[in-house]
Structure prediction request, 494 residues.
Amino acid sequence: MHVRKRCGFADRERDGGDVWWQSMEHCSVLLLLLILSIFSLSDGGSMGVNYGRIANNLPSAVEVVELLKSQGLDRVKVYDTDPAVLQALSGSGIKVTVDLPNELLFNAAKRPSFAYSWIQKNVAAYHPATQIEAIAVGNEVFVDPHNTTRFLLPAMKNIRSALMKYNFHDIIKVSSPIALSALQNSYPSSSGSFRPEFVEPVFRPLLDFLRETGSYLMVNAYPFFAYASNSDVISLDYALFRENPGVVDAGNGNRYFNLFDAQIDAVFAAMSALKYDDISIVVTETGWPSMGDPNEIGASVENAAAYNGNLVKRVLTGGGTPLRPKEDLTVYLFALFNENKKVGPTSERNYGLFYPDEKKVYDIPFTLKGLKNYRHNPVPVTGGRRISKGNNGNGNVSPIVSGQTWCVANGDEVKEKLQAALDFACGAGGADCRPIQPGSTCYDPNTLEAHASFAFNSYYQKKGRAIGTCYFGGAAYIVSVPPKYGKCEFPTGY
Prediction:
């Protein structure tokens, strides 16, 4: 009603024609801005960060809260309920997920009074000034060597009952983060399934609990681990959200252009197999290390910046996964700081977005506003056995040309598939195939792979190297070194 009056509708009889139309025009602008503001708030998912503290050189909790606010990070997940941290977050406007550690699951499961006391001391004492929005009961309990799995559901139920006594149960969600190792199958995504020994005793009751309480499943997903263990078959660009031809899921026909979406959809598929399609997922941990041991393939500052920067863009600009396209995601990056006291491989101490002195390990944005001026400078495809061959067709290796990529034929494919793809490229695809005709500059070597490579690259370059234009049913792949068959040079643009 205030908008109507301000826009002049109430005075249309009194105003002259020109004045009235100017008022209408002003109104239209206001309404458009209002609509755009509404959509700008609803479009896209939400980013948070994990604030781990296994270190002896971190800034104070008060300084950390100021850092979070300065970066526009309005969600944080902590691994305990440290009073200094929760007090520092009071009045900050930052939404908080706290953790009941695995070592307390037994007490929380066996003694409702313990759960009530824990909520009283660690939640009710701070909320709502500290905006606690969720409680992670345990963390990756299925891989906990202390066998805490059997205590998970009773602990969650007792924590939920304690929240009800404070009337917090509709405000604060209760869940538990699972690792992808809880899946029996994760590839292809459509075959996603939970480990059978956990289905009846844990997952069905867990998912029932989440459904009944309106909560979500917390998932920790790390494409880095999958890539580091399978770099011979997984493209680094696929793992880092960079340009790639995608991977088709033979089970449902969906094409995936990044490993993160594929991993999340494997969990969605596992839930769907048990008839829990109505439960959402929050990704409570994901990240990429900026440093690792020699055998930790892919751990580098450049790759960490690419993964996390492109992930932020993917989440904040909206859209779900191929299985849940309309469901935006909430994702927590791991982690806020490098933590020098963590045990294990070098990567464990180098997941931080910031050094302990609060300087960025690499510069990426965390907000939509920051994304407007963000341009990640992607390195051409370098990951995976096939993509990194670097062979130019005559046994020599060409130097990498920064910023350029080419499309070449997969010589391991059957001839019939290559020929069909070549026929398409030179026909309906509109590739410039004149140079591979008899007597032309690229006719020799007269092999199917060489001719198909030239045609595929022509099509790829004509299409502006767009995602998916170097695929041809799996008969092609992208390279970052200039292909050269005999004396034939492949163009980089038309």
Remarks:
- Confidence is low (pLDDT under 50) at residues 1-42, 377-402.
- The chain is about 35% helix and 15% strand.
